[in-house]
């Protein structure tokens, strides 16, 4: 029963009572130590600490993402830590199935994001803590360290394609082998994929195939209503879930942004989450995969625009702005019919033109 409701109300009351009896800071710090997370936070160069599943702690430092085994970061200890952080942050609700997402603050000034079932996998607690930098640089420090040595002038985008874009453009118009190479190169360039088709057309299957091409050493988040997008080749991943009548896809996307994924794979665009997803693509999360129901590649533009306009935020947006944002955000559109790829959209010149006009 304790695991089913995730965070026991009795435990929450106990923590709240102790928070007033003892020092709040000490209580949270004790739970951080019990899970092994504090030891990681104390390491030099660490900027982010994440738990995707009990037993392992991921952290990001100078050499990218690393993972350590941490048996002390078990479900119970993580559960206690999550509750303590919510109480310390004075949240007005109890973390659990009715409120599975929480943004918290730690005594050391770190900010954290917590996601629990049913918004993630059963038996898991997703936790990310961002460590604030205590280093302060002067302009002279940047000069001396070479921080400005790689700067170049941002030339205005033209309506023509770069050599790299032209190379991909030609690949996309080749035979099966060239198309396969195009998909690999598009992943390498962090292009955004929209996979289009009807029910049973093979959208999810090809989405998995493309996901398998992505580098294994990055951090990934999948967002679905039904769990299908498995990532067996990418160990640093989290699976997040939305549900009708529960946590919405839009809320999941907004919470996901605080978990610092390098890439977001969204099962299907169909509601209020569409605009939030497009915003995510333009705020450092390029290189994504999502799907939509439409009759062909070009129809997917109007279909996606219609979905955005039907949302609450979409009612306040001009249709031209919506359509322009879509065309600047989506790079590759693949249309599947009965599991066969029958149409490809890839026209970087259009995107370049829109980007140049927005300057």
Automatic annotation (TrEMBL):
One Pfam family of this chain: T2SSE
Keyword flag Nucleotide-binding: yes
Keywords carried by this UniProt record: ATP-binding, Nucleotide-binding
Any GO BP annotation: secretion by the type IV secretion system
Keyword Hydrolase in annotation: no
One GO CC annotation: type IV secretion system complex
Residue ranges occupied by any Bacterial type II secretion system protein E domain in the UniProt entry: 176-333
UniProt cross-references to InterPro entries, sorted A to Z: P-loop_NTPase, T2SS/T4SS_dom, T4SS_GSP_E_ATPase, VirB11
MF terms in GO: ATP binding; ATP hydrolysis activity
Similarity-based family: Belongs to the GSP E family.
Role of this protein: Part of the Type IV secretion system.
Name assigned to this protein: Type IV secretion system protein
Gene field: traJ
């Amino acid at each position: 029963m304790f695991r089913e409701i995730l965070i026991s109300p009795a435990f929450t009351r106990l923590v709240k009572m102790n928070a007033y009896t003892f020092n709040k800071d000490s209580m949270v710090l004790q739970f951080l130590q019990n899970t092994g997370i504090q030891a990681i936070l104390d390491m030099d160069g660490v900027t982010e600490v994440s738990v995707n599943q009990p037993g392992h702690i991921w952290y990001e430092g100078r050499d990218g993402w690393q993972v350590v085994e941490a048996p002390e970061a078990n479900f119970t200890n993580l559960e206690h830590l999550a509750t303590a952080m919510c109480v310390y942050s004075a949240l007005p609700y109890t973390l659990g199935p009715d409120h599975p997402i929480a943004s918290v603050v730690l005594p050391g000034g770190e900010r954290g994001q917590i996601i629990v079932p049913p918004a993630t996998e059963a038996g898991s607690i997703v936790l990310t803590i961002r460590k604030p930098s205590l280093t302060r640089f002067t302009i002279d420090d940047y000069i001396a360290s070479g921080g400005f040595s790689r700067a170049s002038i941002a030339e205005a985008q033209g309506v023509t394609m770069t050599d790299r874009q032209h190379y991909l453009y030609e690949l996309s118009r080749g035979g099966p082998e060239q198309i396969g190479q195009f998909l690999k190169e598009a992943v390498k360039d962090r292009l955004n994929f929209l996979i289009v088709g009807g029910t049973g057309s093979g959208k999810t299957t090809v989405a998995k195939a493309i996901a398998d091409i992505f580098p294994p050493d990055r951090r990934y988040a999948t967002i679905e209503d039904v769990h299908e997008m498995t990532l067996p080749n990418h160990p640093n991943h989290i699976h997040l879930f939305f549900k009708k009548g529960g946590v919405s896809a839009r809320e999941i996307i907004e919470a996901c942004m605080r978990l610092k994924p390098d890439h977001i794979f969204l099962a299907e665009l169909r509601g209020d989450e569409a605009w939030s997803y497009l915003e995510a693509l333009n705020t450092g999360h390029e290189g994504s995969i999502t799907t939509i129901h439409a009759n062909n590649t070009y129809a997917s533009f109007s279909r996606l625009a219609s979905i955005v306009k039907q949302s609450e935020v979409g009612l306040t947006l001009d249709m031209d702005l919506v359509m322009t944002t879509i065309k600047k955000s989506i790079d590759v559109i693949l249309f599947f019919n009965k599991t066969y790829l029958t149409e490809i959209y890839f026209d970087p010149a259009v995107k370049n033109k829109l980007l140049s006009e927005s300057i």
